[in-house]
Every structure is written in C-alpha cells, then in structure tokens.
C-alpha cells in the first residue's frame, strides 16, 4: 500500500462511508441545490501512515459538492390478513442525494 493514501470515513445520512477526493457517494436526502457544497463530519482520517479518529480530535474538513437528487429502488409493502379480506399495498422510494467529494483538508 502506498504511503500517500488519503481517505476519510465520514458520517452522512445515518451511515458511514469511506471517501477520498474525487469519489462519488450516494447518501440520504440532504438540503441544498445542485452545485452547493456540503461539509461532512469525519469519523476517521487516514493520511499516509498517520491515522486520526474523532476521539483524538480531527481538525480536517471533508467538503463535497451536490451532483444531483435521485430516488432509490422501489420497495413494495404488502399487508394481508387471512380470512378477513384485508389487503393493503403500498410502495416507497427513498429520496437520495449524490455527492462528489472535492476536498479533504
């Protein structure tokens, strides 16, 4: 592994994602317009041989640009009760935001 690898683990939308400069990440819906920049909260930062966690105090900022808004896959929700004639169908598509990481400073 090269010693100049820089990446971060960030918390976004209730999940943690591994990001580096130039990577594209899909997270739960964030406020903002296409082209806006967003700061993500780093949990872990790896800069070559140096590893810094949130408990140690990370001074770095991870900035990302909103590429577009999109929707996740369709999920079918079906409720059924035997012998009563009760049937209910519902669908859901989660709203998502696609981000491109532009800097780790």
From TrEMBL:
Record keywords, A-Z: Ribonucleoprotein, Ribosomal protein, RNA-binding, rRNA-binding
Residues spanning the membrane: none
A biological-process GO annotation: translation
InterPro entries listed in its UniProt record: bL21-like (IPR028909), bL21-like_sf (IPR036164), Ribosomal_bL21 (IPR001787), Ribosomal_bL21_CS (IPR018258)
Record flagged with keyword Oxidoreductase: no
Gene Ontology CC entries for this record: cytoplasm; ribonucleoprotein complex; ribosome
Keyword Ribosomal protein: yes
Superkingdom as given in the UniProt entry: Bacteria
Molecular function GO terms recorded: rRNA binding; structural constituent of ribosome
Oligomeric form and interacting partners: Part of the 50S ribosomal subunit. Contacts protein L20.
Job of this protein: This protein binds to 23S rRNA in the presence of protein L20.
Family: Belongs to the bacterial ribosomal protein bL21 family.
PANTHER family referenced in this protein's UniProt entry, alphabetically: 50S RIBOSOMAL PROTEIN L21, LARGE RIBOSOMAL SUBUNIT PROTEIN BL21M
Protein name, per record: Large ribosomal subunit protein bL21
Organism listed in the record: Peptidiphaga gingivicola
């Amino acid at each position: 592994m090269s010693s100049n690898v820089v990446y971060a683990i960030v918390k976004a939308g209730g999940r943690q994602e591994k990001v580096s400069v130039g990577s594209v990440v899909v997270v739960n819906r964030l406020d903002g317009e296409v082209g806006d920049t967003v700061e993500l909260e780093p949990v872990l930062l790896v800069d070559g041989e140096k590893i810094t966690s949130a408990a140690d105090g990370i001074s770095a900022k991870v900035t990302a640009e909103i590429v577009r808004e999109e929707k996740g896959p369709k999920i079918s929700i079906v409720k059924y009760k035997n012998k009563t004639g009760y049937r209910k169908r519902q669908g859901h598509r989660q709203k998502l935001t696609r981000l491109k990481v532009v800097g780790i400073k």
